[in-house]
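Might you be able to consider the sequence and fold that I enclose below?
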Amino acid sequence: MKTYKYQFFVLLYLNFIILSLSFVVANFAGQHELFSLKALSLYSISFLLLGVYAIGWQQILKRIPLSVAIANRPMTTLTGIIWGVFLFSEDVSVRQIIGIFIVFVGVALVVMNNE
């Protein structure tokens, strides 16, 4: 039975938050004219965040199995919904809530199966 330290899951989820923030910044960049200074600056920040995410992802994969890390990746859907509600005033549908619940169950089953 393998047990993974909770700190690696915290780092994994922080890394997913960084990934989702890169999407948020890119969304803000898309609201400006393509080659404007604001758009280019925001796209640069988004690209930098993706680089930080990539480095973090590689470090996490050294410590937990790929199957566990990949199974947790859909949790970025939750962060996307949270950012959408708070930053872009999007509505959350019942289908989205049901979908997030299904993702939680799937992630829990994979993680429990790998312990």
In short: Helices lie at 6-29, 37-61, 66-72, 76-88, 94-113.
